[in-house]
Amino acid sequence: MSVRLFNTYSRQTEDFTPLDPAGQRVKMYTCGPTVYNHAHIGNFRAYIFEDLLQRHLEARGYEVERVMNLTDVDDKTIRGARAAGRRLADFTQVYKDAFFTDLDTLRIKRADHFPAATEPRYIARMIAMIGQLLEQGIAYQAEDRSVYFRLAKFPAYGALAHLNLDELRPSGRVNSDEYEKENIGDFALWKAWDEADGEVRWEAPWGAGRPGWHIECSAMATALLGPELDIHCGGVDNIFPHHEAEIAQSECCTGKKFVRHWLHCAHLMVEGQKMSKSAGNFYTLRDLIGKGFTGREVRYALLTVNYRLPLNFTIAGLEGARAALGRIDEWVGRISDFRFQVSDLGGALPANLSERHEGFFNALDDDLNISGAMGQLFDLIRESNSALDHGQLTPAQTAELLKLWESINRVLAFERESIVVPAEVAALVERRQQVRSDKDWTASDRLRDEIAAHGWIVKDTKDGPKLSPK
RNA sequence: GGCGGAGUAGCCAAGUGGGAAGGCCGAGGUCUGCAAAACCUCUACGAGUGGGUUCGACUCCCACCUCCGCCUCCA
């Protein structure tokens, strides 16, 4: 069964086929952060969805080459740098570093390339593309010396968002002072330098300034992946105008169809409301870590709702994520321990268990139906727990089961953090085991309190004591 | 005003023209020195509302209600 993905362009679920004649390599571009502050969980929902997409494609045998750009020059970064009294590059570096730390915390696989807009080779490419568009008469320089894309030259503009431009209603966000433009919808390719930009400026044949936001993505995407991409992702709010603009610029420069499959994830809400600073429900990853949640718990909460549905992010949901992960952890621990018992010839897994494994991946094939896939995983957990309870699985079969989990986890990245037990706590646990074998419960309980005083909880399970941090 | 998405149990949520997955919470049980955990079992005669098509509708169609998004540089 092939991978099927919903294409924003056609509004249909389509069989995914890469351009590569061998059907192996996939070129994927994902819009990255603007590095003027810490990314919030809404941003990370998009990156986690893209991570799931990449990991599932890889599980299905594709070789994914992925680019995620960093927008490190625009109005917000310039404003932020000025407010902080720092040079633009120093200001954005802080947030670039923080962004990569957050990616690791959330176990998001690194893209192959993280081009930044201000890197000289990309600025040069943007200037080259703008120059070409000017030559072709597709772009023009207005009285304000900025360069704009002439929308009249690209009738397909609006096709991705399915907007009829003739019927657009001004929303009040259009700056009506921009009378220099021929058409209200014409977007900036190059913004002429002005004093507020300070030392942020690059020289171009038509004058000093800085690139517009849209051209950054077109330049970096085509520089690294070529004129035709298999997949381009982003949040729904990027559909219009950002991705429309990317299509217009790229296709006018290359003459080729820019993107084969457009994927967009829905927004998230927090506690049933739109996330906003004024509503007090605006979270960065750091905020949640500060509340005691782990990256993988946040990952679980953001990953396990289908990307095309609005996600209602709640603290209760995070607690649910913690409990669900605990169930997975217990099961993984159980099968990991069991497989080391007496060797034996084992055999193939019972059919119902391997079917759950296949069901997991088949569900993801269907436009990343993560809920269906998780249902299969939890069925696999319950059914194999039950089989173990009844002594129906051999150690060899359990080892096979562990392999199934490992292949599932290569997509989910939900494995438990390895926990390091301090030596003194380990020693206390060992002493407690000794007194327990003598059935000295008073000493045992006293040691349990002592272990608790070190910040650890010890639980006596069938398989011996288990430690967890308080 | 235009375009689009969504309403399924206390919460999150899947699939399907014919038996309503799964997770959290909750209840019962097994295990256990105690505690905790774990595991097993159970938990919607019902799908926003009202119509319609059909032998049969949560699923298809129509209307209405509610929520969310986009409509020119927000993931």
Question: What is the element string, with H for helices and E for strands?
Answer: EEEHEHHHEEEEHEHEEEHHEHHHHHHEE
Termini separation:
45 Å
Largest sheet: 4 strands, parallel
What share of residues is helical?
40-55%
- The CATH topology of the largest domain is what? Rossmann fold
- State the total count of DSSP E strands: 15
- Give the mean pLDDT: 89
The total count of helices amounts to 14
CATH architecture level-2 label of the largest domain: 3-Layer(aba) Sandwich
**Level-1 CATH class name of the largest domain:** Alpha Beta
The CATH homologous superfamily of the largest domain = HUPs
Strand order of the largest sheet: 4-3-9-10
Shape: elongated
Beta-strand content: 5-15%
Using only C-alpha atoms, the radius of gyration works out to 27 Å
Overall structural class, as computed from helix and strand content, comes to alpha/beta
Number of domains: 3
The oligomeric state is single chain
Poorly predicted tracts of residues: 169-177
Can you walk through the features of this model?
With about 475 residues, the chain is an alpha/beta fold. The protein contains 14 helices and 15 strands. The chain is elongated. Mean pLDDT is about 90; it is low at about 170-175.
Topology:
Layout: E1 4-7, E2 12-15, E3 25-30, H1 41-59, E4 63-68, H2 75-84, H3 88-105, H4 120-135, E5 139-141, E6 147-149, E7 188-192, E8 209-211, H5 213-225, E9 229-235, H6 239-254, E10 259-265, E11 268-270, E12 273-274, H7 285-290, H8 295-303, E13 311-313, H9 315-338, H10 351-365, H11 370-389, H12 395-412, H13 423-437, H14 441-453, E14 456-461, E15 464-469
Parallel strand pairs: 3-4, 3-9, 9-10, 11-13
Antiparallel strand pairs: 1-2, 5-6, 6-7, 7-8, 11-12, 14-15
This protein binds one RNA strand of 75 nucleotides through helix 1, strand 9, helix 6, helix 9 and helix 11.
